[in-house]
Design brief:
Two copies of one chain form a homodimer. Chain A is an alpha+beta fold. Helices cover 53% and strands 14% of the residues of chain A. The interface between A and B is large, with 53 and 54 residues.
Chain lengths: 110, 110
DNA sequence: ATCCTTTATCGTGGATGTGCGATGATCATT
DNA sequence: AATGATCATCGCACATCCACGATAAAGGAT
């Protein structure tokens, strides 16, 4: 059991999958995404009326989702309309599809 | 824009999806899972020889994956053999399938 | 020019994540 | 009993996350 010191560089896909997963790793953000996908789009204020959190907190979650690429915001002063970023959404979908693609049902465990 | 104070309780599915996503939110853990799915099973030491991390760090990541339910470990002293937990793996697969199930391609944004 | 509405950003405090070396636990071998 | 191999756990640093209230930014209405 000898440790490697080679500084492994993860594949781009691995890095991106981890980024998407982190964005999805909080119940509030999942709820926001669910809301966005059912309503198609919505404003920040709509979410404040639904989630028991301060407006600043929700804004922060929206920022994280935007930085992960899962949503996009269109400024429409004084409101901002958020939607799913379809392109990246499908990208994430494919990443997770690939990740879970292995069929273990036929493999006896060792 | 009036804030709700009702203490929302997230659905069990939402909570579990978040838990799975958190487990998948780190490149090291994704690499471990990829390794496990290609090799079927492996020992802790095998991973130490592949990843440039201390044994304790890898053990910690394995613990998180185990607590999330994605893998299981079978003690075989002095070694421990880790495998994918097929049942929960498929559960996670279904959660993400459902999450990404929406077809936005046909929806014009608002 | 001054409010009002809506949203983003800042600063802060507490919790959690991530890496490490050191140490403990377990069991086979000697 | 003592040693060696393998792995988990502990304790420690440092960074990031998460929630909050306060404040800033932007633009419409008065």
């Amino acid at each position: 059991m000898k440790r490697t010191n080679k500084p492994i560089s993860y594949s781009k896909t691995t890095e991106e999958t981890a980024r998407f997963a982190k964005a999805l790793s909080h119940p509030v953000r999942l709820t926001i995404l669910k809301h966005l996908s059912s309503q198609n789009c919505c404003f920040t204020g709509d979410l404040v009326e639904v989630l028991p959190l301060a407006q600043s907190t929700i804004s922060q979650h929206l920022k994280e989702l935007k930085e992960a690429g899962l949503i996009q915001g269109e400024v429409n002063p004084p409101k901002v309309k958020y939607c799913i970023d379809v392109e990246n959404w499908n990208k994430a979908k494919n990443f997770f599809d690939t990740l879970f693609n292995e069929d273990f049902s036929k493999i006896s465990c060792c």
